[in-house]
Amino acid sequence: LAVTAARAGAVPHVPLRDLADELGDEQDRLDVLDAGDPRTSLRAVFSWSYRTLPAPAARLFRLLGVAPGPDTGLHAAASLLGADVSSTRRVAAELTRAHLLEEHTPGRFRCHDLLRAYAAELAEEDPADRDAAVLRVLDHYLHTGFAASLAIEPFRHPVALAPPVPGVVVRPIPSRREAAAWFTAEYACVLAAVDRAATTGLDVHAWQLPWTFTSFLYWYGHRHDLVACLGTAMAATRRLGDVAARAVTHRLLGNAYSDLGRRDESLAELARAAATFHEIGDVEGEAVARYSTAVVLDRFGMPAEAIDRAHEALELYRRTGNRTVEARTLSAIGWFEARLGHYDHALEQCGRALELLQALGDRQGEADTLNSMGFAKAGLGLHEEAVAHHRRALELWRESGNDSHRAKTLTQLGDIHAAAGDGRAAREAWRQALEVFESLGDPAADDLRAKLEDG
């Protein structure tokens, strides 16, 4: 009705009876395409507004029909057009005035599913333009997602991306909070982009897009979606015959399976990753895989075995000269030692790691290390020092926007209070942790809820 009303308003001199006749004429022509789906009877109505659009607006309308996801951000829309953001905003405004598009939140656009289907049908009339637009928008998600990933996890070992094709608009992502906000707003779109890449034969995008999204999906608790994306990535690496990409994906899958409690699958994927990296001579890749294996072994109650794998990773990292991951590995060894009750040795390892991490500016690594030191201090009966370490870690997690690890630190803080006999403080820390875990859909919420009920 809005589309029909907009058409009538645009031509007030034309009698409504003539508009009704026009609708009938259009329907006669479009009935040939009607396969019994009631939606197709709307083509004539939609075409009224479409035919009055200026060429740039008509083109954007068509291309929005093939954009991945339920809505489209302004920068993604600009990439579809291959235009700058300012001109795209003006073109989008023409579509909203014609009731063919809705700006449902500032800078984000959507249209009714029926209009979207109509737009996609129109886009098929120029497959070259359509395919080029799909490539540009996938490049937008890939390169913006890459920047966002490194804002979330700045010391991550990056993969090598090809430059974006001409016309791609890459949104600047200057901070972790802006990265998290971008991923949150684009969440459904980035998942759809992975599927679109796989179904259109863009296999490099189909494995690199999941790599860029892994940091967000992992740190913010979207575990099942992460596994699904990485399954798509693995299939793409096999089609490409890209051994290095397959090794990376094995490692990411190993980490993801671990978060879902799938120990055997996790360790098997990580073993494949380490072996493949070793075969192709990628020392840092092998080190990361062995470090990840250590973390998984500890998670499943095998800290002694974890120490062995961590020392293997440490030796490999020292060969690469990567001081950040060397420091993080020292921190992990300290944590594993603390888990075995070797508290003094744990504090020695963590102290060396903390000094390095602070010098390197690795705030998340610093927070992790403070957690481990707090755990060791608690083991030595130094309650106040343990609490101080955890509170400082909480400040760093809050500063970085890492809610998943903030909740884990709150849980540990509650445990320390409980061990010291302060039940009230323990319950408050656990309650705060539970709120965060529930907001993330983290299965850790179940154990914490039971702990609160028992207490």
Features:
elongated, 3 strands, 455 residues, Arc Repressor Mutant, subunit A, disordered N terminus, 3-stranded antiparallel sheet, 23 helices, mainly alpha
Could you walk me through the main structural features you see in this protein, from its secondary elements to its overall organization?
A hairpin with a 2-residue loop joins β2 and β3 (108-110). A three-stranded antiparallel β-sheet has the order 1-3-2. It has a domain at 2-133: Arc Repressor Mutant, subunit A (Orthogonal Bundle). It is an all-alpha fold. α1 (2-10) packs parallel to α3 and α8 (127-152) runs antiparallel to α9 (176-185). It is built from 23 helices and three strands.
How would you summarize this macromolecular structure in one to three sentences?
With 455 residues, the protein is an all-alpha fold.
CATH architecture of the domain at 2-133: Orthogonal Bundle
CATH class of the domain at 2-133: Mainly Alpha
Structural class designation: mainly alpha
Principal-axis shape:
elongated
List the helices and strands and how they pair.
Elements: H1 2-10, H2 16-30, H3 43-51, H4 55-64, E1 72-73, H5 74-81, H6 85-97, E2 102-105, E3 108-110, H7 113-123, H8 127-152, H9 176-185, H10 187-199, H11 203-219, H12 223-240, H13 243-259, H14 263-279, H15 283-299, H16 303-320, H17 323-339, H18 343-360, H19 363-379, H20 383-400, H21 403-419, H22 423-440, H23 444-454
Antiparallel strand pairs: 1-3, 2-3
Helix pairs in contact: 1-3, 2-3, 4-6, 4-7, 5-6, 5-8, 8-9, 8-11, 10-11, 10-12, 11-12, 11-13, 12-13, 13-14, 13-15, 14-15, 15-16, 16-17, 17-18, 17-19, 18-19, 19-20, 20-21, 21-22, 22-23
